[in-house]
């Protein structure tokens, strides 16, 4: 596949994993207002949003890994 696709999916995978960590470490009231799950005054972290972001990030890294392999003859 195209190397741009491989690098793009790898970078997006890392970004989504970072977003998952951000969700788990930040209470809902302290999230950026444009992030899904923002609720003013709520002190609970959004575990499900972080888990979904982690799964998506890992899936993108797997896609990057499998598409970067050698081409078949």
In brief, what are we looking at here?
This protein has 73 residues and is mostly helical. 60% of the residues lie in helices and 0% in strands. It has helices spanning 3-25, 47-67.
Q: Please state the oligomeric state of the protein chains shown.
A: single chain
Count of structural domains: 1
The 3D shape can be described as: elongated
Strand content: under 5%
Structure annotation, total helices:
2
Radius of gyration: 16 Å
Major beta-sheet overview: none
Give the overall average pLDDT: 87
Runs in which pLDDT lies below 50 for 5 or more consecutive residues are: none
Tell me the helix content: 55-70%
Decide which structural class fits the backbone: mainly alpha
Structure description:
- With 73 residues, the protein is mostly helical.
- The protein contains two helices and no strands.
- Helix 1 (3-25) packs antiparallel against helix 2.
- The longest helix has 23 residues, at 3-25.
- The two termini are 14 Å apart.
- The model has no long low-confidence stretch (mean pLDDT 87).
């Amino acid at each position: 596949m195209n190397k741009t696709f491989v690098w793009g999916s790898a970078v997006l995978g890392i970004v989504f994993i970072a977003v998952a960590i951000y969700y788990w470490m930040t209470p809902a009231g302290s999230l950026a207002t444009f992030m899904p799950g923002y609720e003013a005054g709520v002190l609970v972290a959004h575990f499900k949003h972080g888990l979904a972001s982690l799964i998506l990030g890992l899936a993108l890294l797997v896609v990057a890994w499998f598409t970067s392999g050698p081409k078949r003859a």
